[in-house]
Amino acid sequence: MSASGGNKAIIAALTANLAIAVSKFVAAFFTGSSSMLAEGIHSVADSGNQLLLLIGGKRAQRERDKSHPFGYGRERYFYAFVVAVVLFTIGAAFSLYEGVTKIVHPHDVESPIWAFAVLIFAIIAEGFSFRTAIMESNPLRGKQSWVTFIRRSKSPELPVILLEDLGALLGLIFALFGVTMAVITGDGVWDGIGTLMIGVLLAVIAVVLAIETKSLLMGEGASSEMEQQIRAALESTPEVDRVIHMRTMHLGPEELLVAAKIAVSHDDSASEVARGIDEAERRIREAVPIARVIYLEPDLDRSHTPTA
């Protein structure tokens, strides 16, 4: 994912959420609706999350140093994980608490026209943000399903924004459902039910994000397609007989570490082996440009060594 593409989706989501948060709090003040209050907190949490993603992207661009010889690329994964924690602790926990409180102690929704007007505005704004995230994701997604893209993407920003925007749209629908039912029936319990639904939704999204970003933080390897390209590049090098074993790990979304033990002929001189390693590295970088850190260890091809 290009930084500009990810930032465009983040800024679109941040702009929409700040405007929506203000309108939701105004509606919550005039209506006394817990669904609207929960949605306001949800938008504030989302806005904070988008700021965290921007900070993570900026910090990840720092040059490698003595204490971090492989650079800071994985800071993007850390901040994406923090987003999941914030979404759960602030968004989900508050909504669940507020929903239970309003179910136990319900009260009527006052001036519902405020709630309906704000919810319609918010749905339009979130729809714009969601559309931007989809458009930025499509070139990277290719023919993958959305579920596969979110699970396999090594760039955390777009999957996070996609899930946040989807959650925001569904949350608005839940809030609209709760407020509408409360107005129709005259029973404020429905408002609490809508709030509870928002809390459960945010908790589910937060757990999904936490699982996916935890995997990236732990150090994910290259995709199977990328590993095949690397192996093919190595084995196409004349001085390399075969790949004995290979390990890969993402140091960041656009930086891959490749470590491999390669078999060379026992008749090759040291200079020939060195030239072969240089050529193999060139071919790997040509096939997989994000392979920035490459370590190749030559070994004798014992499977073809003549026996006495």
TrEMBL record:
Subcellular location field: Membrane
Family annotation (InterPro entries): Cation_efflux, Cation_efflux_CTD, Cation_efflux_TM, SLC30A9
Cation efflux protein cytoplasmic domain span: 223-294
Lineage top rank: taxon: Bacteria
UniProt source species: Nonomuraea guangzhouensis
Residues spanning the membrane: 9-30, 77-97, 113-134, 160-184, 190-211
Keyword Membrane: yes
Name of the protein in its database record: Cation diffusion facilitator family transporter
Pfam name, any one: ZT_dimer
Membrane topology of the entry: Multi-pass membrane protein
Record keywords: Membrane, Transmembrane, Transmembrane helix, Transport
Domain Cation efflux protein transmembrane: residue ranges: 10-218
